[in-house]
Design a protein that fits this description.
- By secondary structure, the chain is of the alpha+beta class.
- The chain folds into 5 domains: 4-161, Chitobiase/beta-hexosaminidase domain 2-like (Chitobiase, domain 2), CATH 3.30.379; 167-393 and 403-463, Alpha-Beta Barrel (TIM Barrel), CATH 3.20.20; 502-672, Four Helix Bundle (Hemerythrin (Met), subunit A) (Up-down Bundle), CATH 1.20.120.670; 688-795 and 1030-1039, Golgi alpha-mannosidase II (Immunoglobulin-like), CATH 2.60.40.1180; 802-1010, Distorted Sandwich (Beta-galactosidase, Chain A, domain 5).
- It contains 23 helices and 42 strands.
- The strands form 7 sheets. The chain has a 9-stranded antiparallel beta sheet, covered by helices on one side.
- Strand 11 (297-299), helix 9 (314-341) and strand 12 (344-348) form a beta-alpha-beta unit.
- Helix 3 packs parallel to helix 4 (131-147) and helix 5 (182-194) packs parallel to helix 6.
- The longest helix has 36 residues, at 591-626.
C-alpha cells in the first residue's frame, strides 16, 4: 500500500534538507482522510477576492454550494458558480478572466473515486476519474479552506489521491430505541460524505413501518418507507449508497413477542427455520424494503442465534447438526433475495465461524460481514476462513459506543486500525464501521470520532497513525484552530480502564454511589480523583474547541454531555464520602457544633441531586436533536429515579436537622442513610471499647506474657466458620514487635489456643491484631478471647498459615488444608493443592492464560504484578498484588481454611477459577454436581461441550461443583448477588462470574467436603459478608500481677 504524501519517497535519506522539510510541512496539513500523495509548493491562493467556480452542469450547484459555504464560514466572498457543458469531471476556482491552466490528471488507480487537486496562486483545479472523484476532490478543497487556511489564503500544493477499500460504510442503529429522524439521517450522510465514506447503512429489527405487518413497528418510532426512499435519493449526489438491512433469524424478540407471531418462534429470540410461515414473513418484510434500494447488496444479518436447535428445529438439528440447520436457513434467504429481488446477500459471519464444517454450504456469492470489536493486535482469524474459501467480505469493526457514557475511544482506535489493516491485506471488499444502541440511551453525535477514524483507515488501509489523526480531526470536523478535540478524546479514552469505571458503561452512571463503598474508602477516593484528573482537562479542551468551532457544534454538545456525566460520577463519590463523614462527626459533637455539619451534608447531596436534574434536561434536548420522541421516556425515568433517591435522602436529613435543632439526639449514620460500609475490607475498629478488663480473675495462660487484652466476638445473626477477626489496637511499640498468643475461652471447655498475629496498621498509632476462630461460632453466640502480649514464641499451631518464595517471582502460601502458588502473571493462583486429596492440584494445568484461579480476564490476565506481602502468618498471609494497569488484587489466606479471600480495588463483572476438567466434568473420570445459592442444581456438563456446558444462576451469591463426601470447588461473592456460572473446567471455566453487575469481593473454596455442600457454602458466605460483620467488643488491658 502506498504511503501518504509521497512521504515514502520524500523521507528517504538521500533527500536534501529542503525536501525533508517540505515533507514534514506537508504532514502538518489537517486533512481527513489524509491524501496518499501531497506535494507542498511555494505560495498561496488568495481567497479574499472575486472568484469564479466552473463545474459540470449536473453537479455545479452542489459543488458550488459546498465551496461557497466554506468560504462564507471563513468570512470570505462566495464564488460565482458557472455550470459548464463538459462531460469531464473537472472544477476550476479562479479569478474572472484568468488564463487557462492545464488540469491535473487523476490517478489511474483507485477507480472513479480517484482525484487530483492542484492549488496554485492563480486558482484551484480539481479533476476526478469519475463524478465521485470530483466530489471527493472538492471535499478536500473544502477541508483546505476550513482547516488549513493561512490568513486569507490556502497553501499551494498538488494532491493525488484514491481509496484503498472500495466500500467505506458506517451504520446507525435504528431499532434499539433511538430512532433517527430523516433530518438526522441526512445530516449523517453529509458528514460521512465529507469524510469520503460512500456507503450508509442502518440496523433494523422491527422499527420500520411495515404496511403488511402493522403490528410489528412502534407507532411513533418507525422509519417510514417514504423516508427511506427520500434518503436514497438524497445521498446519490453525495457519491453514497444506502445498504438495506433486516434481521432475519436471531434478534427477533421484538416481533415474536406479539401473539400473532409466536407460532414462528424457535425461541423467544430466534425465528423458526422449520416453519414455512417464517419464510413468508421474511418475504413480506423484504418486499417493503428491498425494492426501494438500488444497491445490489442487502444485509440479512442472521447473527447471534445462540439457542438454535433447542426449539422446533431440535429434531432436525439432531440429524444434521445445529450448523446444518443454520446453513439451510441462510440458503433459503439467499435464494429468495437472489431469485425474487435480484440482490446479493450479505450476512454477519459470527455464527458460521462457529460451525466451519458448514461454511461450504453457504453460496459463495454471499458477502460475509466479519465482525469483532475488541482492541486485539490481529484479526486474521476473523478473516482467513472467508478469504481462503473464496468469499468476498467486509471487515466490520465498531465505534465501541454501545451502552457507554461515551465510546471507548482508546479501544476504537486499535480495533478499527488493526481490523481494517488486516482486511486490506487479505483483499477486503470494504469496511462496515458499526455502532449499536444496546441499552437505548445512546446518542449518535459521539460516534463521529470513531466514524472519522474508520473513514481514515478505510481510505488509507490503516497506514495513518492515531497521533496524527488526533491532531487533525478537530480542525476537520469543527474548524478549530488548535487540536483541543483530539486532546480531549485522548484523555477521555483513558477513563474506561480506570479502576471502578466499569468500562464507563451507562449502568455505572446509574449506580449513584449512595450505598456501601464497593472497595474501601481510600481506594474510592483515589479512583474518583484519578477520574476527575482526566475528565476535567478533557472538558476544558472540549469547551475550548467549541469556542473556536465554526461548524458542527451540536456534536460537541453531546461529547461534553458525556464528559460531564463522567465528571459527576467522580464528584458524587467524593461528595457522598464527605457528607457521610460530616454526619458521623456530627453524631460525636454537641448540638451547636453538629448543626453546621448536618447542613454541609445536605448541601453536598443537594448539589448532586441538582446535577442529575440538569443532565436529564440536557439529555432530552440532545435526544430531540437527533431522534423521534419514541423511547425517550424510559431513559428520562432513570434520571427521575436518581433525583427521587436524592430527594428521599435529603428529606430524611432535613427532618433530622430540624429535630436536632429542637434538642433531639441524632439517629445513627445507618438510620440516616449515611453509614460508610466498605465492601472491600474487613472492619478493623471495634464496635465498642470497654475500659475494664475481660474476666480479670481468669487464669494467666502464658506466664512469659506481661499483659493481656480481652475481646468478645458476637456471631450475630449468622453461623461463622473459621471466622477471621482483624482489629486495630493501641499497644506500646515494644509489645507490637513481640509474639502474641490468643485463647478462646469457650463456656464449659478448656481454653483453646487459636492463631493470632500482630502486623502494622494503616491507622496512626495502632497495631493490627488478627485472629482466626478455629471451628464454628454458631449464630447468636459469643466468643470471649484473651490475647497475651509480649509472649515468647509458642509451639506452631497445626492450622497455621505461612508463606515462602517460589521460582520465577512466585510465592507459596500454605496451611494445613491447602498449598497455593501465587504467581506475578495476573496475580493468579496457578496451583491449588488439596492436602486431603494427597496434594492434588485443582487448577487447570499450566501457568498462563486459562490455567489459574482468581482470573480477572482482559488485559489484566497477562499483566505482570508486583506481589507485596503485608502479613506473613500464622493467622493470616496477605499479598497485595498491583499490575501496571492500576488493578490491585488483595489475596488473603487464613489459618485452617481451604479458602482464599480476594478483594479488588476495582469491582469486576468477570472473575473465574479455571479448574481441571478431570475434577468434575461429566466426560471426565470423576463427574460432579453443580449447586448454586439459589438452589439450582444438576450434573456438571461435558468438557467437550465447552462454553455450551456453562450453567448460569442470576442473583446468586455463590456457585459450586462437588463430589459428595470428597471435594468441593466454589466461588462466593459474599456481599453481592451476581450472575454466577459453573462449567466443566478448562477454558470454559470452573466456577466464576461473567457478564454480571460487578463484584469486588470474592472467596474461593477448594477443599474437603464433609456433609451438606449448601451448609458449607452458606456458612462461608455469612462468615465473609462485609454487610453483616460480627460485633467486636474490645476490653481494657490487664497487667500480670
Amino acid at each position: 500500500m502506498r504511503c501518504h504524501l509521497v512521504l515514502a519517497a520524500l523521507l528517504c535519506s538521500c533527500l536534501s534538507p529542503a525536501a525533508l522539510a517540505q515533507a514534514r510541512s506537508a504532514a502538518t496539513l489537517r486533512l481527513v482522510p489524509f491524501p496518499k500523495e501531497v506535494r507542498l509548493q511555494a505560495g498561496t491562493l488568495a481567497l479574499n477576492r472575486r472568484l469564479v467556480l466552473e463545474a459540470p452542469a449536473d453537479s455545479a450547484a452542489l459543488l458550488g454550494e459546498l465551496v461557497a459555504t466554506e468560504l462564507s464560514r471563513a468570512g470570505l466572498p462566495a464564488p460565482e458558480v458557472r455550470p459548464i457543458q463538459d462531460s469531464a469531471n473537472r472544477l476550476r476556482l479562479t479569478p474572472p478572466g484568468s488564463r487557462s491552466m492545464s488540469m491535473p490528471a487523476p490517478p489511474a488507480t483507485g477507480g472513479p473515486e480517484a482525484y487530483a487537486l492542484q492549488v496554485r496562486a492563480e486558482g484551484a483545479l480539481v479533476s476526478g476519474a469519475g463524478p465521485a472523484g470530483l466530489f471527493y476532490g472538492v471535499q478536500t478543497l473544502c477541508q483546505l479552506i476550513r482547516a488549513n487556511r493561512q490568513g486569507q489564503g490556502i497553501p499551494c500544493l498538488a494532491i493525488r489521491d484514491w481509496p484503498s477499500l472500495r466500500w467505506r460504510c458506517f451504520q446507525d442503529d435504528l431499532t434499539r430505541g433511538p430512532s433517527s429522524t430523516l433530518a438526522e439521517l441526512k445530516r449523517q450522510a453529509d458528514l460521512g460524505a465529507h469524510l469520503k465514506l460512500n456507503l450508509f447503512t442502518y440496523y433494523m429489527e422491527h422499527q420500520y413501518a411495515f404496511k403488511k405487518h402493522p403490528l410489528i413497528p412502534p407507532a411513533d418510532g418507525a422509519l417510514l418507507p417514504e423516508e427511506l426512499a427520500a434518503l436514497v435519493e438524497y445521498v446519490r449526489p453525495l457519491g453514497m449508497d444506502v445498504l438495506g438491512n433486516q434481521q432475519s433469524f436471531g434478534h427477533f424478540n421484538n416481533i415474536l413477542c406479539h401473539e400473532q407471531y409466536q407460532e414462528l418462534a424457535e425461541t423467544s429470540w430466534i425465528l423458526s427455520p422449520v416453519n414455512e410461515k417464517s419464510y413468508q414473513l421474511l418475504d413480506d418484510l423484504y418486499s417493503e424494503v428491498v425494492p426501494l434500494l438500488p444497491l445490489p447488496f442487502f444485509n440479512v444479518c442472521c447473527d447471534e442465534t445462540q439457542g438454535l436447535g433447542e426449539g422446533p428445529s431440535k429434531a432436525l438439528a439432531q440429524q444434521i447438526g445445529v450448523g446444518g440447520v443454520y446453513a439451510g436457513h441462510v440458503r433459503r434467504i439467499h435464494d429468495l433475495l437472489k431469485e425474487k429481488y435480484g440482490k446479493r446477500m450479505m450476512m454477519w459471519g459470527d455464527i458460521i465461524l462457529t460451525y466451519p464444517e458448514n461454511l461450504k454450504e453457504i453460496p459463495t456469492d454471499t458477502i460475509m460481514l466479519t465482525w469483532a470489536y475488541d482492541p486485539r493486535a490481529n484479526f486474521e482469524s476473523q478473516i482467513e476462513p472467508f478469504a481462503k474459501s473464496g468469499y468476498e467480505f467486509f471487515v466490520c469493526p465498531g465505534v465501541n459506543n454501545w451502552s457507554r457514557i461515551l465510546p471507548d475511544f482508546a479501544a476504537t482506535l486499535i480495533n478499527i486500525r488493526n481490523f481494517v489493516r488486516d482486511g486490506a491485506k487479505h483483499g477486503a471488499l470494504g469496511m462496515l464501521n458499526t455502532s449499536w444502541d444496546d441499552d437505548g440511551e445512546t446518542l449518535n453525535a459521539p460516534n463521529w470520532h470513531g466514524y472519522a477514524w474508520g473513514a481514515e483507515c478505510a481510505w488509507n488501509a490503516a497506514t495513518t497513525s492515531p497521533e496524527a489523526f488526533q491532531r487533525r480531526i478537530g480542525a476537520v470536523l469543527f474548524g478549530e484552530k488548535g487540536d483541543h478535540f483530539g486532546q480531549a478524546i485522548t484523555l477521555l479514552g483513558q477513563t474506561h480502564g480506570l479502576p471502578g469505571a466499569q468500562g464507563m458503561i451507562n449502568n455505572r452512571f446509574w449506580q449513584l454511589d449512595l450505598g456501601p463503598v464497593p472497595t474501601h474508602l481510600a481506594a474510592e477516593q483515589e479512583h474518583a480523583r484519578r477520574l476527575l484528573k482526566l475528565v476535567r482537562p478533557a472538558i476544558a479542551h472540549l469547551e475550548a474547541c467549541r469556542r473556536q468551532a465554526t461548524l458542527n457544534t451540536p456534536l460537541l454538545d453531546a461529547f461534553l454531555f458525556g464528559a460531564r456525566r463522567m465528571e459527576l460520577i467522580g464528584q458524587r463519590v467524593l461528595d457522598h464520602l464527605e457528607a457521610s463523614r460530616a454526619y458521623q462527626e456530627a453524631c460525636e459533637l454537641p448540638r451547636e457544633r453538629a448543626l453546621p455539619l448536618l447542613a454541609k451534608a445536605e448541601a453536598l447531596l443537594r448539589r448532586n441531586r441538582d446535577a442529575h436534574t440538569a443532565l436529564g434536561r440536557e439529555f432530552a434536548a440532545l435526544w430531540h436533536r437527533e431522534n423521534r420522541p419514541y423511547a425517550l421516556d424510559p431513559v428520562l425515568k432513570r434520571y427521575e429515579n436518581a433525583v427521587a433517591q436524592y430527594d428521599s435522602l435529603l428529606t430524611r436529613l432535613a427532618t433530622i436537622r430540624e429535630a436536632a435543632a429542637a434538642g433531639s439526639p441524632l439517629p445513627s449514620p445507618k438510620e440516616a442513610g449515611l453509614e460508610l460500609i466498605e465492601l472491600g475490607v474487613r472492619r478493623t475498629h471495634p464496635h465498642r471499647v470497654e475500659s475494664t478488663p475481660l474476666r480479670a480473675d481468669a487464669p494467666w495462660l502464658v506466664p512469659a506474657s506481661s499483659r493481656r487484652l480481652g475481646l468478645v466476638i458476637a456471631a450475630g445473626s449468622a453461623d461463622r466458620l473459621y471466622l477471621p477477626v482483624e482489629v486495630d489496637i493501641r499497644i506500646p511499640a515494644g509489645l507490637a514487635r513481640k509474639p502474641v498468643r490468643a485463647f478462646w475461652l469457650a463456656e464449659g471447655a478448656a481454653p483453646q489456643e487459636i492463631p493470632a498475629q500482630l502486623d502494622r496498621s494503616r491507622a496512626p498509632g495502632r497495631t493490627r491484631l488478627t485472629l482466626v476462630l478455629s471451628g464454628l461460632l454458631p449464630q447468636g453466640t459469643t466468643a470471649p478471647i484473651h490475647v497475651y502480649l509480649g509472649a515468647s514464641e509458642g509451639a506452631a499451631l497445626p492450622q497455621a498459615v505461612s508463606t515462602r518464595k517460589a521460582p520465577k517471582g512466585a510465592t507459596w502460601i500454605e496451611n494445613d488444608q491447602v498449598r497455593l502458588l501465587l504467581a506475578p502473571e495476573g496475580a493468579h493462583l496457578y496451583r491449588w493443592e488439596v492436602k486431603a486429596l494427597g496434594g492434588r492440584d485443582l487448577t487447570m494445568p499450566g501457568e498462563s492464560d486459562y490455567s489459574g484461579f482468581a482470573d480477572t480476564g482482559g488485559e489484566h490476565r497477562k499483566a505482570p504484578n508486583r506481589l507485596v506481602c503485608t502479613a506473613r502468618g500464622p493467622a493470616l498471609v496477605r499479598y497485595v498484588c498491583k499490575d501496571p494497569l492500576g488493578l490491585e488484587k488483595t489475596i488473603s489466606v487464613f489459618a485452617g481454611l481451604a479458602a482464599a479471600e480476594v478483594a479488588l480495588n476495582s469491582p469486576s463483572g468477570y472473575f473465574w477459577a479455571f479448574d481441571d476438567p478431570k475434577n468434575f466434568a461429566a466426560d471426565g473420570p470423576t463427574p460432579g454436581t453443580y449447586l448454586f445459592s439459589t438452589g439450582a442444581t444438576g450434573a456438571v456438563g461435558k468438557e467437550a461441550d465447552t462454553l455450551a456446558a456453562q450453567v448460569r444462576a442470576p442473583g446468586a451469591t455463590w456457585g459450586a461443583k462437588y463430589r459428595p463426601g470428597e471435594v468441593l470447588l466454589g466461588m462466593i461473592t459474599p456481599d453481592t448477588p451476581a450472575l454466577h456460572v459453573v462449567a466443566p473446567g478448562a477454558g470454559a471455566g470452573g466456577a466464576g462470574i461473567e457478564g454480571t453487575p460487578p463484584a469486588g469481593h470474592f472467596v474461593l473454596y477448594g477443599g474437603p467436603l464433609e456433609g451438606d455442600p449448601a451448609l458449607l457454602m452458606n456458612r462461608l458466605q455469612a462468615t465473609f459478608d462485609y454487610r453483616n460483620q460480627p460485633e467486636v467488643v474490645l476490653y481494657g488491658a490487664q497487667a500480670k500481677r
